[in-house]
Amino acid sequence: MLRNVSDSPEDRMNVHKNAPLTPHGRERMVRAVVDDGQTKAAVARAFRTTARTVSKWVERFRQDGVEGLRDRSSRPHSLPSQTPLATCDEVESLRRDRCTQDQIAAHTGLSRTTVSRILRKRGLSHLACLEPKEPRPRYERETPGEIIHIDIKKLGRFSRPGHRTQGRTTGVCSSNGSGWEYVHVAIDDHSRVAYSDIFPNEKKESAVAHLRAAVAYYKRLGVKVTRVMTDNGSCYRSKAFRDACAELGIKHIRTKPYTPQTNGKAERFIQTTIREWAYAMEYHSSDERKADLPGWLHRYNWHRPHASLDKKPPISRLGLTDNNLLKLHS
């Protein structure tokens, strides 16, 4: 009676279910030779294979028993051409001493290609990899209004639900020719209280209008804005924006070129806005989406827990009293 060989997960993954020479089939084949005394040629014909294959599995069975009928790794037992670990460690040590790849190759007698391969595997291809990465600047102003961060996000207009909510990733856009609208955002550095509005463009007139509206919004909350930080967009470099800041008594700070993390709070708020408002639900049109923005902003400022504020909403940092709340909502 034949003994069953339970296939391992690897066997079930790599062997076709209808293959004749699974470990179970191999056992049947070798036992026909070993136990039943059939010739290897006859068994090979019965199992539609070659006598050489039958002989191979018979030898493995005699040496290792049933376990010898399982698949073995194709990896060779030895790799004479592989660079010894001690040599690889020496290459790394020289690299950490700021040696170039050519210097390492000359010192160790390895080819430059081998040195390059070793350094690549160890993440040391470039000398810059040895330098610690500068941490991103993280700061928070002590009082509300010291700095508000301002930025702009472009959104496509649409007249019916689009691919982001319908799950379509290819095909013709459902609102070709509808144009764009621009979400201008402002967020207070200390409290994370935010203000946003939508304008038809990102020109200086819209940027100035948003600045004035944001300053008025914070004033209603009892916050006096003294500084504003923006990127180097043309609307923020305009004379109109500069004059508006001077009129409002606000110092304008622009980020260093190619360092958007300096204005990171605005960037992060835009991500939250896109995820939780713009594409959070299926709007039937961009006008419907725009109408939902004030309600979402209220939830964000007054009710949504903020991770950097100990799970409290941004408005909690302004210390408003019940009387203030009644005035704001009247």
Fold and architecture overview:
With 330 residues, the protein is α/β, with parallel strands linked by helices. It has three domains: 61 residues, no CATH class; 44 residues; 182 residues, Nucleotidyltransferase, domain 5, CATH 3.30.420. Helices cover 42% and strands 10% of the residues. It is built from 13 helices and five strands. Strand 4, helix 10 and strand 5 form a beta-alpha-beta unit. Helix 3 crosses helix 4, helix 5 crosses helix 6 and helix 9 packs parallel to helix 10. It is elongated and about 100 Å long.
Total domains: 3
Q: What is the β-strand count?
A: 5
- Report the top-level CATH class of the largest domain: Alpha Beta
Tell me the structural class.
alpha/beta
Summarize the biggest pleated sheet.
5 strands, mixed
Q: What value does the Rg take, in angstroms?
A: 35 Å
Total helical elements = 13
SSE order and pairing:
Blueprint: H1 9-14, H2 23-34, H3 40-46, H4 51-64, H5 85-96, H6 101-108, H7 112-121, E1 148-156, H8 163-166, E2 180-188, E3 194-199, H9 204-220, E4 227-230, H10 239-248, E5 251-254, H11 264-278, H12 286-302, H13 322-329
Parallel strand pairs: 1-4, 4-5
Antiparallel strand pairs: 1-2, 2-3
Helix pairs in contact: 2-4, 3-4, 5-6, 6-7, 9-10
Characterize this entry briefly.
This protein has 13 helices and 5 strands. With 330 residues, the protein is of the alpha/beta class. The chain folds into 3 domains: 61 residues, no CATH class; 44 residues; 182 residues, Nucleotidyltransferase, domain 5 (2-Layer Sandwich), CATH 3.30.420.
